[in-house]
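Researcher: Checking consistency across runs. Here is tRNA A-37 threonylcarbamoyl transferase component Bud32 again:
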Amino acid sequence: MDARLAALGAIPEMTDADIRTLLAALTREARRVERVELSFGAVWIKRYGTEHPPVWTKAQNLLARLFGQPFLRPSPTLDSKGMIAREIRRIGTFAAAGVPVPKVLYSSGSALVLSDVAPTVTARLDVLRDSDPAAHDGLLVACAAHLGALHGKGLCHGRPHPRDFFVAGERRIGFMDFEEEPEAAMPLATAQARDLWLLFLQLVDRARLGDATAEKAYAAWRANAPPAAEAALADMVRFLAKFLSTTRLIGRVHMGSDLRRFLAATRYLCEVLLPPRPADASKAGKDD
C-alpha cells in the first residue's frame, strides 16, 4: 500500500485497484469536492487551499465593528492545514455527542477523504417537493428539530443548509461540512441564533405549506434549543428588522433569490419574536 494511503487501512475491503483510483484522484487537479467510486461504494474528497482570498471576510469584520453586531463576524480564517484540523476536530466533537456525521477515512495537508452519507436532505426534498408536499415540509420541520437538539447539546453547526444535512435513518438527521466555527468568533448563544436564522432562510422559502410549516419548525427548534439562543435570536432579528423596508424597496427593482429569502425568513421571525409596533397594537385593540 502506498505510504500516503496507509491510514486508509480502516476503509473496508480496499483493493489494489481502489488504492490506485483514490491515489490518482488525490493527486490530480480537480473540483474542490469530488465523489470517487470504489469497489465497496463511494467516498468524498474535500480539497483545501483552492479557495480565493476571503474578501468578504474583511467586509464582515468591518460590518461587525461598525454595527456592533457579533453575529456578523466570520469564523477565524485558517490555512488549509488549519481548516482540515478544524473539520476533523469538529466531526469528532459531534460524533462524541451522538450526532450522525461522516467518517474521516484519510487526511493529508490539503485534502480529506470522507465516507458517503447519501442521501442529503436536499436530494430528498427534491424528490418530495411535488409528489408529497406534507412529507417535504415534515422533513424541513425535522431539520429544525434536530438543529435545536444540536444546540441543546451545546453545539453549533455554522452553515446549516439542507445540502449539509443528510438522512441518517427513518427518524434521524445527520450533519456534515464543518468548515465554519462561528462560536470561536462570537458567543455560543449568538452562533446558535445565527444557525436558526440561516436555516430559516432556506426553510421559509422552500416550505410548500407556507407559514404553517415555519410555525411547526420554529416550535420544534425551540423545544430543544437553550433559552439563551432564543434571546440572542430576538436581539439579532430586532437589528435585521431595521433593513426590511430598504430591502423591500430594492426588491421592487430586482428581487433575487437571496433577497427573497432574507425578506421571507426575517419577516416571519420578526412576527414571532418581536412585539407589534404601537400602530399595529392600537389597530389590534380596535378589532377586539
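Researcher: Does this match what you'd expect to see?
Model: One thing to look at in this run: Residues 121-278 form one domain.
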